[in-house]
Amino acid sequence: MTPHINAKENAFAKTVLMPGDPLRAKFIAENYLENVSLVTDVRNMYGYTGEYKGKKISVMGSGMGIPSISIYAYELFNFYGVENIIRVGSCGAYSDKLDLYDIVLAQGACTNSSFQENYHIPGTFSAIADFDLLLKAYNNAKDLGIEPHVGNVLSSDVFYQDDVNAWKKWQSMDVLAVEMESYALYTIAANLGKKALTILTVSDSLVTQKETTAEERQNSFTKMMEIALNL
Q1: Which residues make up each annotated binding site for phosphate?
Q2: Quick count: other Cβ atoms within 10 Å of Cβ 16?
């Protein structure tokens, strides 16, 4: 056990799906997995292990932001033998090519966080997805009749920006969308020799000002779940 996960040894599968919201983890476990067990519930950050199409798989919430996912991802990779973490989350669109419910595969993650300073790198680390997972996810999406968007996202430490137009500078660099976790996930995976991928559903758009409800984000973002599960 760790300070943040009370699961027993070998409680997790080699692959963990990781939504930010623990209730989304519960939704995935109850609606997609068989023979499911709750394996951790510290601070109500639920983690489950079950089977999908006969294969063992786990799902666990990460919480919001780089500090939160960095704790759970590190502990899963380092103490529980997890090899692959697939983040399934929501994002805000920066690109006018994105609409609500579109799927984004985060090929890379930019950030305004100081997270990389933890590694004392003499430069700027480019956080990228594992190519095998990215390619499989892209092909899975196509097989499901989904046209995913592949590219860069911003992992932001700030939700409420003082400069309301700051996002336009990221848009000018062809950053597709903003979320709050992927940079840390990709960096930790690289450092530990593990694999990671982020699959996102557009929940709102800074371009059009459209947005989904909290309930819709929790229960209806099913396309990305199916892409991830079929990896």
Answers
A1: 20, 24, 43, 87-90
A2: 26
